[in-house]
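Quick one, tokens below. Sequence please?
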């Protein structure tokens, strides 16, 4: 273990986990800023209020979906890093770039909620998701090929399971990206396929 800590590019995994937790907390909070009390031109009637609230449905749907996605991403990252004791400089920068995609989620989510009927908007959102899923896969892949970074009590099977989760996520994103060119308004519904997969994964681990 001391050999790891003496490496010139050694980075404590706790520093990364702290940064990840902070960035996720901010990104997940910023999602709600896309929602605002709708402005209603006079006269204000029950019907006008109702219609203005209905107009928020796409934004609320996009926000909830993005919040759940971020929660799943955070959970997978936590599962990966709970099995290791340290990382190198390469993994540090992979995580920093990964967090760049994370902080873009409030923007792409808000864009999708307001202009989700347009292909370019869905492409931006799905590329955002693809970047997150792809870099998360890269985390697991590199760690599985560097046993020296895995904790003595770490479980390689759990790392493999996390890597497989990211592969499934990537496939779902690619499907959503393909549907963006056909039915952009409903392409994001593809992400609902991830929820039962994650639930099943947790049930099997119990």
């Amino acid at each position: 273990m001391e050999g790891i800590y003496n490496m010139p590019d050694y980075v404590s995994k706790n520093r990364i986990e702290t940064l990840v937790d902070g960035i996720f907390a901010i990104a997940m909070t910023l999602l709600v800023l896309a929602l605002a009390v709708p402005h209603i031109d006079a006269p204000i009637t029950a019907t006008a209020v109702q219609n203005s609230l209905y107009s928020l449905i796409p934004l609320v749907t996009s926000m909830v979906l993005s919040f759940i996605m971020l929660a799943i991403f955070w959970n997978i990252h936590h599962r990966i890093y709970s099995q290791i004791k340290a990382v190198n400089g390469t993994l540090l920068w992979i995580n920093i770039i990964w967090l760049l995609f994370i902080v873009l989620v409030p923007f792409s989510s808000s864009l999708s909620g307001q202009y989700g009927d347009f292909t370019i908007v869905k492409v931006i959102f799905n590329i955002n998701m693809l970047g997150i899923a792809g870099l998360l896969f890269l985390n697991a892949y590199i760690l599985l090929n560097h046993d020296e970074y895995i904790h003595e009590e770490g479980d390689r099977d759990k790392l493999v399971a996390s890597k497989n989760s990211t592969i499934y996520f990537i496939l779902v994103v690619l499907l959503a990206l393909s549907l963006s060119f056909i039915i952009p308004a409903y392409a994001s519904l593809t992400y609902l396929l991830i929820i039962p997969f994650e639930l099943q994964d947790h049930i099997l681990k119990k």
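The mean pLDDT is 87. Residues 2-205 form one domain.
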